[in-house]
Amino acid sequence: MPQFVTPFASLDLLRQPEQRHDPLQAFDAADEYLLEHLHQQGLAAGSRVLLLNDGFGALACALAPHATVVSSGDSFLGALALHKNLARNGLAADAVRFVPANACAEGPFDVVLIRVPKTLALLEEQLIRLHGQLAPGARVIAAGMVKHLPRAAGELLERYVGPVQASLAVKKARLLSAPPEDKPAPQSPYPTRYQLDSPPLQLVNHANVFCREGLDIGTRAFLPHLPVGLGEARVADLGCGNGVLAIVSALDNPHAQYLLLDESFMAIQSAEANWRAALGERPVELRAADGLAGQPADSLDVVLCNPPFHQQQVVGDFLAWRMFKQAHAALRHGGELWIVGNRHLGYHAKLKRLFREVEQVAATPKFVILKARKG
Question: Which residues belong to any copy of the RlmG N-terminal domain (predicted)?
Answer without folding.
Answer: 1-180
